[in-house]
Amino acid sequence: MDKVAAVAGVGTQTVYRRWPSKAPLVAEAVMQQYPPADFTLPDTGDCVDDLRTWMREYAARTAAPENVALIRALAAAAAEDLDDRDSLYRQLTGRVHQAVQDRLAKGIALGQIQAGTDIEAVADALIGAILYRVLSSTTPVNETLQRYDGLIDTLTSGLTPR
């Protein structure tokens, strides 16, 4: 917060009046870079293909070094304070999570996804895979795409033999 105040040429208290902690400041900065349209999933009529396309787009977007740094900074900010974590979740991940659930619900309604599927758990798995890859490794995009494709294949076909 001190650095933000110095760059802005204002006192630290001025920054704290606008943002009570680091996480809301970071979240607002992120939201200015990613318009709401970025939190929607494709809807071509094929739910599984749309999920695959969405994950591929995220893989390409998060591969940029500045985005990796940003996501890691957000994770660090969220880890510092539980209230900040909840605020960041609502502002950022919550939108994506809801968009994935909405797309899956539509897939259920169209008979493309098995009725009774725990769409919240599926959204957790897909978003969690993205965050895990960004936070824990610096793999090439093509390797990340293979992992995402493997995850979607496993989620859509299941783990047990038929």
UniProtKB/TrEMBL annotation:
SUPFAM superfamilies, alphabetically? Homeodomain-like (SSF46689), Tetracyclin repressor-like, C-terminal domain (SSF48498)
Q: Name one Pfam family in it.
A: TetR_C_11
Sorted alphabetically, which InterPro entries does this protein's record hold? Homeodomain-like_sf (IPR009057), HTH-type_TetR-like_transc_reg (IPR050109), Tet_transcr_reg_TetR-rel_C_sf (IPR036271), TetR_C (IPR011075)
Q: Keywords assigned by UniProt?
A: DNA-binding, Transcription, Transcription regulation
Sequence ranges assigned to domain Tetracyclin repressor-like C-terminal in this UniProt record: 41-145
Q: Which domain of life is it from?
A: Bacteria
**Signal peptide span:** none
Q: Specify the protein name.
A: TetR family transcriptional regulator
Q: What is the native source organism of this protein?
A: Mycobacterium paragordonae
